[in-house]
Amino acid sequence: ICAAAVDYIVNSAMVSLFLSIELRMRPAQVLREMRIGGLADFLVSYLGLGLLGLALAVFFLKVGWWSVVTVFAPLLFARQMFFRTRALEEAHKELQEREQILKQLSNAMAEERHDERERIAAYLHDDLAQTLFRLSIQVDVARKQLEKGQLADTKDTIEKIRAAKQETSDRVRALIRDLHRSPLGPKGLADALRSFTEEMGRDSGVTFHTHVEDVALPAPIALLVYHIAREGVTNALKHARATDMWIDVTQDTEFIELELRDNGVGFDTSAPGPEGHFGMEMMRERAQVAGGTFQIESVPGNGASITVRFPVALLQQEPPQETGADTGTAVEAPAEDASLDTSATPSPAGGGSALSVRA
Prior knowledge:
Blueprint: H1 2-23, H2 27-33, H3 39-62, H4 65-148, H5 151-180, H6 189-204, E1 207-212, E2 216-218, H7 219-239, E3 244-251, E4 255-262, H8 279-289, E5 293-298, E6 304-311, H9 312-315, E7 321-323, E8 330-332, E9 356-358
Parallel strand pairs: 1-3
Antiparallel strand pairs: 2-9, 3-4, 4-6, 5-6, 7-8
Helix pairs in contact: 1-2, 1-3, 3-4, 4-5, 4-8, 6-7, 7-8
């Protein structure tokens, strides 16, 4: 019992000292906040520990050192099973959290699709419908001019009808092209980000500084990075009142990193977000779905910084293979053909460009 008491005192002192250094708290405060459970359970546990130590000492003196091994072997096995069970529980919990995130992201994507449908409907109503209505009026005017024998006026009206018809066709083709086209385009993430920031800069007056390294990303991850950057820029333009914004995509040995910074008014990250605004949460969910991390830093008056990191290990892919035309054997594609470069033309089919997009 005395040995168990000494063990508890030494253990508590070492734990308190370590936590006081780690958490920068006074040892007395750490001791006050330590939890030992119920007093009866605590005394029974330490009494059992003392009796176990006494039994091991007797076995060692009466039988020999190997008796200690026979006692510790099942304890080590139980310890390994305990950690394995806890690891499985944590994996199960993480899987449930990932499933919840996927559901939330699916709902958010459904809402985005609903917004897109509303935007298309508004475009058809406000733009194409008006053009078609103008066409119908011009056709009626041309018919009346023909009935009156005003051939010169009819010719001019027909030319206007032809121009309106061509304008309508061009707008329909542009709408179809936009619906089918990926926002990344054929040249990849860097070109898409520059085009987007140039357009935003013209409309807002904000100066954008874009730096995208030559990073090979799977196409879905590149699209996620683009959407996160677009959402971050849109939020900053709405709320930050910044004059300069920086977008950096870099890679080191462990992570591919997207960093968004601005010199705007900043905000309190601990405060709840505005009601009905889910941009930040959608950015976080998009990062987590791909196994990444999302971090935001901001101080009122000193701008904001958003950092998204994707582990390189999760983005690695098996090298694409193609079948030899003459021999029928699998031929490994060259590494440089596994992705699209911003300065190169699209590689032919079979070159692996569909698997990844080079930033």
